[in-house]
Amino acid sequence: MLILSAVTVVLLVINVKSTPEKSKSSSFYIVPLGTSGGLDESNLSSYLLTTVNESTPNSAYISLDSGTLRHGLEMAIKQNCFSSQSLTAEQFLQEKVKAYFISHGHLDHINGFILNSPNDKSGKTIFALNETIQIIQDDFFNNQAWADFGPHGLKLYNYQILDPLSTNSIPIPNTDLNVRIFRLCHTCPFLSSAFLISRRDESSASILYLGDTGPDDIEKIVQIDNSTYYPRYLEQLWQTMGPLVVANQLKAIFIEVSYSNERPDHLLFGHLTPKWLLKELDVLRSYHSMENVTIAVTHIKPEEGSREKIMKQLKEESNSNYNFVFPRQGEPIWV
Ligand SMILES: [Zn+2]
Ligand SMILES: [Zn+2]
C-alpha cells in the first residue's frame, strides 16, 4: 500500500512538471518571451535560444520569431531567466540577441522586432525566406508603415535570405549555431517556414522551430486548369528529420496547435489541431521512437479554456508516444 501511494506521488509529480528542467545533458536553453497565437499583444510568438555547456547557458541568444520582445524580456528578467541580472530589457536586446529568425510575415510573429528596431544595436542579421524578407522590406521597413532600418535604408540590419532548396546549414554570426530553413504551407500558397538550428560542435544537437503551418492533407493549391496540387511540405520536413531522430540529435520540436479538435477543417486557416498534429508526428515516429524529443506546443489561440482543452486532447489521444510541453512566458526550457 505504501509503495503504491509512493508510485502515485511520483506519477503526480511527473504530470505536474510543465517544462523540462536543467540536466547535465542539456544542449539548449530556450526562454519563451511570448507563446500565444494572437490577440494579447504582450504574449505573441517569440523564443530566445542559446546553447548550454556544462549546465550553463551561453550569453549569445538568437530570436525565433519576435511577436513580443520587450514585455517578454521584462518578464524573463523578473523571473531570473538570465545570469546577467543587471541588464535592462533594452540592454539585453541590444547586447545579447545576435540575430532574428522570422518564420513568416504575419504581425503576431514580427510586431516586437519592428517596434523595438529604432533602439536596437546595428549590424544584426534578419534570417528568413525570400518571401518573408520581401514582406519586411515592402510592408514594414518602407518608410510609410515604419522607418526603413533595412540594408537599403538606414542600414541598421542585414537581410540574409535562406534557400529552402539548399541542403546546407549556414553559420549564424556571433553564435556557435548553424541554421537551415524549410518551407511550410500556411494557407497555400502563402508560405511560412521552419528553422533547423544546430550546434556547430561535434554533437550536432539540433532544435526544429516551426512557424505557423496547416496539415499536409488540407494545404493545397488550386491550379489554373482547376486541378489541385498538395505540396506536402511537412512530409518532406519529416523525411529530413527522421535520420536526426534516429541519431538522437533532434532534441526538440517547437510546433503550433492553434485550435482544439472542435475546430472544423474548413476553418483551420493554415493551422493545426491536436488531431492533425498527432497525425503529422506519427509520420516522424515511423522512423524512430520519439521518447527523447521534446514537443513544445506553441501558438495556442487565446480563446477561453482552449489551452487546457488542447493539453487534454493531446495527452488523451497520443498514447504517451510523445513528450509534450506547453511553454509559458518567462519559464525557461532546457533540452
Ligand atoms: Zn501566427
Ligand atoms: Zn501566421
UniProtKB/TrEMBL annotation:
Q: Name one Pfam family in it.
A: PDEase_II
Question: Mind listing the GO molecular function terms for this protein?
Answer: 3',5'-cyclic-AMP phosphodiesterase activity; 3',5'-cyclic-GMP phosphodiesterase activity
Organism's domain of life? Eukaryota
Cleaved signal peptide residues: 1-18
Q: Which UniProt keywords apply?
A: cAMP, Hydrolase, Signal
Q: Name one GO biological process term.
A: cAMP catabolic process
Family designation = Belongs to the cyclic nucleotide phosphodiesterase class-II family.
Which PANTHER family does the UniProt entry name for this protein?
3',5'-CYCLIC-NUCLEOTIDE PHOSPHODIESTERASE 1
Q: What protein is this chain from? A: 3',5'-cyclic-nucleotide phosphodiesterase
Q: Which organism is it from?
A: Adineta ricciae
